[in-house]
Design goal:
single chain; alpha/beta; six-stranded mixed β-sheet; four-stranded antiparallel β-sheet; 7 helices
Length: 221
């Protein structure tokens, strides 16, 4: 589902060159739940951003669902991301002035579907994460765990083939973290959704199918 061949990422300024990723080869089969671990600054989020087509590699090639995206323009990449990928972030990134269900609907605004269908899909996504009764609430009325479940509902509302999660349990206590992981595991097993998760938590990583470790931008395990 995701194939990275010899991916490197180098950030350059006038005075310094920093290698964020160094010749990464990583293949993620359809339906796998993969976790990525490593110390802060090792390139985990950079790798996830490249998988999510939010950043471009300095060299190497990426295939997503069998497609090379090298020649895609910005509009084509945005459409591909919207249809194929769902994103979950550590800090939730909910819009405070929108209700829960309006937050969940956001990815669907870029698709040619009716307002009624958007509402129906958003309600179904909230039902899937156990928050159907919170759809009219606002983010500041929710706990951290509930906010992350809303973020998961937003990620899955468009029925993506791939979910990319950057520290999805990082701001949660262990109980809330376990609840969020249970939802991700269920999505992976029941829907065969491919999930790539960056985490610092070894306990969470052990719940996934495979663990990849990075150190100083290099894959070490």
């Amino acid at each position: 589902m995701i194939k990275l061949d010899n991916i490197s990422k180098i950030y350059r300024t006038k005075t310094i060159e920093t290698t964020a990723l160094n010749e990464i080869d990583l293949h993620v089969p359809k339906g796998e739940f993969l976790s990525i671990m490593g110390p802060s600054g090792c390139g985990k989020s950079t790798l996830l951003n490249i998988m999510g087509l939010l950043d471009l590699p300095s060299s190497g090639n990426i295939l997503v669902d069998g497609q090379s995206l090298k020649n895609f323009n910005g509009k084509q990449l945005a459409k591909f991301r919207n249809e194929k990928l769902g994103f979950i972030f550590q800090s939730f990134h909910l819009i405070p002035d929108l209700s829960v269900i309006d937050n969940v609907e956001l990815p669907l605004l870029y698709r040619s579907i009716s307002a009624k269908e958007r509402r129906s899909l958003a309600a179904a996504a909230l039902e899937a994460v156990g928050l159907a009764n919170r759809k009219s609430h606002f983010p500041n009325q929710l706990s951290g765990g509930q906010k992350q479940r809303v973020a998961i509902a937003r990620a899955i509302v468009g029925k993506p083939d791939i979910i990319l999660a950057d520290e999805p349990t990082g701001n949660l206590d262990s109980v809330m973290g376990d609840e969020v992981m249970d939802i991700l595991i269920r999505l992976n097993r029941e829907n065969k959704t491919t999930i790539v998760m960056v985490t610092h938590d070894e306990r969470m990583a052990k719940k996934t199918d495979r663990l990849v470790r990075l150190y100083d931008g290099t894959q070490v395990a």
